[in-house]
Amino acid sequence: MTSLIEDMQRDDWPVVRAIYGEGLATGLAAFTLAPPKWPAWNRDHLPFARLVARDDAGDVCGWAALSLVPDT
């Protein structure tokens, strides 16, 4: 299997959110219990470097995004 890395599109959000939720369910991924809805996620992540990995069928199988982290 090969993966293609592409810019995340707004239409990718439902799958990205589902993958995010799977990570949160482990209790190891973040301090939050549920993935946010699109407006909050969009607000809290930088508009560039939002990436998805697609499998051979073109389905999203992973993602990465940058967010600001306060230095306080």
Secondary-structure blueprint:
Blueprint: E1 4-7, H1 13-25, H2 38-44, E2 51-54, E3 60-64
Antiparallel strand pairs: 1-2, 2-3
Summed up:
The protein is an alpha+beta fold and 72 residues long. The chain contains two helices and three strands.
Can you walk through the features of this model?
10% of the residues are buried. The longest helix has 13 residues, at 13-25. This protein is α+β, with helices and mostly antiparallel strands and 72 residues long. It has helices spanning 13-25, 38-44, and strands at 4-7, 51-54, 60-64. It is built from two helices and three strands. 28% of the residues lie in helices and 18% in strands. It has a three-stranded antiparallel beta sheet with strand order 1-2-3, with helices on one face.
- Helix content, binned percent: 25-40%
**Helix/strand order:** EHHEE
State mean pLDDT (0 to 100 scale).
Answer: 91
The counted number of beta strands is 3
Short key terms for the protein model shown above:
72 residues, alpha+beta, three-stranded antiparallel beta sheet, 28% helix, 18% strand, globular
